[in-house]
Amino acid sequence: MKKILLLIMGIFSFTACTDLNEDPASLITTEQFYKTESDALAAVTAVYNAALNNGGLTMYNRLFHLAFEIMSDDAIAGLRVTNADVRTISVLAHSTTNDRVDELWKESYVAINRANIAIARIPGIEMDATLRTRLVNETKFLRGLLYFNLVRLWGDVPLILEENGSLSNEAIQVARTPKEDVYKQIIQDLTDAEALPSSFTGANAGRATGGAAKSILAKVYLTRQEWDKAAAKSLEVINGPYGYDLFENFADVFNVATKNGKEHIFSVQCKSNVNGQGNRLASSATPVGIPGVASAGTDEPHADVYKLFSDKDKRRDVTFFTSLVSPTTGKEITFPPRFFKYFDPAQIVNPTESAKNIPVIRFAEILLIYAEALNEGSGPTADAYAAVNRVRKRAGLDALSGLSKDGFREAVYLERRLELMFEFQRWFDLVRTKRMITALHAAGKTNAAEKHYLHPIPQREMDLNPKLLQNPGWE
User: Counting beta carbons within 10 angstroms of the beta carbon of residue 425, is it exposed (0 to 12), middle (13 to 18) or buried (19 or more)?
Assistant: First the structure.
């Protein structure tokens, strides 16, 4: 039993089985599977699927929104939300048994275990050496990204770097590792992944690149307030051989026709109505009560966020929409602002069929990381102004100038919020800048307290693993 590798949906597609009495000889063990180049490719694909988007309520495809972004001052649970776990987490009244928090922890470690298996097994496969090294580094990139998310949400977390094929208590009960040690591994994994190719084309478009590794690494350094390293690493991305740049039109960041374009450093790859791989975030934008429109629209922007955008900000009408034409009556219907970035008007009746990708990191954020890091290190330098003003110019806004260090800092914080809204950045920004409680109280989410800087360890995990200790305030 302990040697069986469960090939979960996402590695292969099988036809439905009608005979539930499986032949034990048909089970595939790790020793049998990791033999060929195609096995290696399938194993890494399985990590991508688990880490990013395996359809349904997976991490970057909606779970991140429901597990922490909805806690921020950008979003609320709408009146149509009936799930108690979603409603409580949106007002920071959740507990250690919240199913969204539990699912996020579980899915993270499922993906990490797949990554550990691939990193351990692929080097032993006889195949093209360049491809073998590339696949291992792609997997290290994904593992680094997964642990980066975990350490930001939970602080100290179990650092597991070897495949777990055992059912013994000793193997599955692991204590939390100090976050400094977790960060060391994140930095090592991402540093190794910097050796990845600068780009991919064709069927490989969307894979992790050396530029993606450098970009996430710059974000790691920013989170750790290692300003010089964050500035230097983001400058490597800006000046590197990757060809990154801003789209001239902000809407192209979210157009299907321009997926994996010059601004997209790393994105979740979504398909329309293919094996559940449509963009599930799109359904949260669907207005309700419109004839012919699916009854979704349960997640809403906070009432104040639309007002943050000036009338001349070109991002506003890409981030939100306030009207559409009914597919059944042909009449325009207006409604309060709804998130729009991932919504596909061509799929209005079936909103989860959106093929829009979900950005994990894009070039605009690298410019803002560079600007923030420079300012924190040396004040608002000319290069810091140039970086942030590139983003503002594309948005149709005037250039910043003449600000103090504190004023520039606040301007960059606001620019991040406007540019990256609904891209899973706001919660992390509030936490890393220690503004979470003040910002949420101002937004009417008065339950926000010191304990919310970290998620609770899921109660199910605490029950299964007595070596885990709960985060402060959640005991």
Answer: buried
Tell me if 61 sits within 8 A of 268, measured CB to CB: yes
Distance CA 99, CA 86 (A): 9
pTM (2 d.p.): 0.91
Quick check: helix, strand or coil at residue 438? helix
Residues 6+ positions from 71 with CB-CB distance below 8 Å: 89, 90, 92, 427, 440, 445, 452
Spatial distance between the Cα atoms of 239 and 421, rounded to a whole number of angstroms:
26
In terms of Cα–Cα distance, which of 170, 192, 14 is closest to 115?
Answer: 192
Would you say residue 190 has pLDDT above 60? Answer: yes
Of the ranges 55-64, 252-261, 320-329, the best mean pLDDT one = 252-261
SS3 156: coil
Instruction: Using the predicted structure, report yes or no on whether residue 4 has a pLDDT greater than 70.
Output: no
Q: Mind listing the pLDDT tens digit for each residue in 398-410?
A: 999 999 999 999 9
451-461 confidence digits (pLDDT tens): 999 999 999 99
Tokens of 178: 């100090």
What span, in angstroms and rounded, lies between the C-alpha atoms of 436 and 175? 28
Sign of the CA dihedral with 112 first, then 114, 119, and 120 last? positive
CA separation for the pair 295, 384 (Å, rounded): 45
Strands (E), 221-354: 264-268, 299-301, 320-325, 332-339
Q: Are 387 and 367 in contact (CB under 8 A)?
A: yes
Q: How far apart are alpha carbons 160 and 174 in whole angstroms?
A: 8
CB atoms within 10 A of CB 31: 10
Q: Which two tokens stand for residue 66?
A: 């429901």
**Distance, CA of 418 to CA of 78 (rounded, Å):** 21
- pLDDT digit string, tens, across residues 211-241: 999 999 999 999 999 999 999 999 999 999 9
CB proximity list for 30: less than 8 A, separation 6 or greater: 3, 5, 117, 121, 163, 165
Max distance between CA atoms of the chain, in angstroms, equals 74
Q: Is 291 exposed, middle or buried (0-12, 13-18, 19+ CB in 10 A)?
A: exposed
Q: What angle do CA 178, 184, 189 make, to 5 degrees?
A: 130
**Concatenated DSSP letters of 5-58:** ----TTS---PPP---S--GGG--BHHHHTTSHHHHHHHHHHHHHHHT-SSSSB
Q: Give first-to-last CA distance, the chain, whole Å.
A: 35
* pLDDT at site 290: 60
Single-letter amino acid, residue 435: R
The per-residue pLDDT for range 191-207, each reduced to its tens digit, is: 999 999 999 999 999 99
State the pLDDT at residue 81.
83
- The proportion of the chain whose per-residue pLDDT surpasses 70, expressed as a percent, equals 86
Q: What is the pLDDT of residue 452?
A: 98
Q: What are the E-state strand segments in 233-390?
A: 264-268, 299-301, 320-325, 332-339, 358-362
